[in-house]
Amino acid sequence: MAWEGRHGHAYDQPAFRYLLALERVRSWRSGFPLMLLLVELKPRPEAKRVIDAACTARLFSALSMCCRETDIVGWYRRERVAGVVLTELGEGSPPDLSLVAARVTDVLNKRLPMDITHRVLMRIRQKQAPQPPRASRATSETISGDHRCSTSL
After folding, report:
1. Domain boundaries, the chain
2. DSSP assignment of 79-144, as one string?
3. CATH of span 3-152
4. pTM, two decimal places
């Protein structure tokens, strides 16, 4: 685990990537799109390129406040980019990307200090479920859409 607090925990990069791969398979089987939220903290010019432990705790705590218990939170890229897999619970249409972005932006603005929020870059990617695998390997890896929503706080 990368971080554990009273509201949940964040997975380290290998565990997060493994769970993301499982969600991709589940997305393919269910036909529902996969939604991935990426939060990058741009480094200060004088600082190292990784996020320090204090910022990590604050960032993951804030992310856990705007995610459901079923969502997967962790390091997409170790100590640089936090990720959240917004799991699909089945029925209903997928959430609107702009509504998700607004909710996350609001929570991060309220829960993080201003010196951190000015350095946050957030991206939301929604991958449509790929077609069922066929004989060709290239065909099985095709994604039929990639919707992006980027915002700086």
Report:
1. 3-152
2. TTEEEEEE---SSSPPPPHHHHHHHHHHHHHHHS-HHHHTTEEEEEEEEPPPPPP-SSHHHHT--S
3. 3.30.70.270
4. 0.75
